[in-house]
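QA checklist item 7 of 12: single-chain prediction sanity check.
[x] sequence parsed
[x] length recorded as 626
[x] structure emitted
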Amino acid sequence: MEEVDRILIHALKQVGTEVPAEVDSVRLFSSELVVEAVVSCLRVIDPGLGHGLPTLLPPGMSARFRVGSSLAQACQDIGYKGEIGYQTFLYSSELEIRSLLMFLVEKLPRGSAETSDQSTGQSVLLHKGIAAAIKAQLALSWLPPNCRLPLDCQPLGPDALYHFHMQPLSVAHSAETKQLPEVREYHRELLPPVTSQSVHSACVVSSLLEQHMAERSAAQEWDNEWNNQGLLSRLTQQEYRLRKRCRLHKCIDEQLRSAAQCSSESASHSSSDLFEFLQAFKGCSPNGHILAKGTHFTHTQRFTFTQEAAGSSPAPQTLLSEGGPQLQQRDELSSLQQQFEELCSDVEQLSAQLKHTSFNSAQVLNDMKKRERENHDKQEQIQVKKTTIDLLPHADNNLHNIQALVENSARRVLHLATQWEKHRAPLIDENRRLKEICKIQDMESSGKLSEIRSLHDKMSVCTEEARKKEETYKQLVSELESLPQDVSRSAYTQRILEIVSNIKKQKEEIIKILSDTKDLQKEINNLTGKLDRTFAVTDELIFKDAKKDESVRKSYKHLAALHENCNQLIQTIEDTGSILREIRDLEEQIESENGNKTVSNLERILEDYKAIRQENSMLAAKVREA
């Protein structure tokens, strides 16, 4: 253990723990030194986890318990499986501390534990601190400027000042193999890169994220639809997509057709109204043309030409020339307004007449349809009566013929029924057999469907695990590339070789002791067997002579007593050996308990208990005062 403790102390010094020179074993570690060593190792292993842990124990007992609990939780977070708690740091045991430090030293990165020939001065520690601070900052997640606290606000580049804008991008997907050659040529020759498609360079990332999110959501929706509805349809993916596309086209066609019908009906009504309106305009216009909108010059010219063609008196012309253009405009506007009002009244009258006429025509059409149905019914009745009147002169023959037809029809129905029964039985059997086959196929398909779903779930889980392992692999490769490749491990190699040689020597000694023990056990077994055989032979010989001679009988009794005493002596020796082994075990337990510092830990626990009671009493006094 001394060699192991020296290796642990050397590794702790390399990570920045100030171990005193007189401390050469884990047994001499104090609680403060244990806490400092554990925190130093945690800061090297996981900077984000060990950055908020203190290297010194606070004076208050409650704060000490909290620090011990946080250290225990941090060690469990990095994978320590042993029993650990606040008592491990406050009331430390040699075995627990050694196992914990061995675990932490094994978890240290290779670049953190340097060889013994390198210096451990302040510059090395400064570089290590800088590297740990950089790693801790890199491990923190990025926050946008609007979500940062005042302490976290740091000046960023000009790109961070842009808002999240998205622009549609055109991206050539390599997965789409079934593309037209023109599309592929466009993607290869004419399609610009995504960085030049957006107006601002800051919008490229947001646009790519938005497009990627849309593609991922579409793919996820398709997977959900295929797993829920596509598998139940028992079609391939191409057939299912084709059927879905046909349904969509059919729905669009129906919607367009219904919209076209509605628009055609409204257009017919509006076109008829428009035609009547235009005809009304045409009838009211003096020159037979539609009154159109024109400029002031055209209206003035048309007005003057009409006045000249009508051969009016020269008085209005002199008034127009004398009144100026304003009087001409006012007269023209009043005449147009009057014509417009007359046209509006005519349009209203015509629309009312049209509605009344359409209503009357609908009533007339309904009456005509009703009378046509009545005429059709009366014609059928007349035809039946005419046929009956034609059959009356030959009533007997007709009745006989009808009865013959009825009997033939009945016989034919019976014949058809017998034939149907002959055909129906095998058809029913075939139907039942097909139903059973369909039921079996449905059960098999449902089972296969459940298997397919389970396989889909397993595939998704496997892909997620593969993605995580790929990310872990990339991270480990990057860490491996960042580590120095010229680290010398001669000291560790030499110490490991020494430990291996010592272990070999101890193993040889153990094997030698085991062989000696086996030889002694074999010799004891031989002597015990020899003694039993000698006693049996002697007992048989003396027992034969004891029947004849009294002295030999006394010798036989002494022999039995001697054998019993020897057995008791052997049993006593064996009991003595077992007692000695128990004594050694108890001595080892006593040494281990002394190593655990049970008495000193109990004393410290009592002192901490008294300190906690004093703190509680002080807090209670403060509460009363408040």
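[x] summary fact logged: The two ends are 56 Å apart (CA to CA).
[ ] second reviewer sign-off
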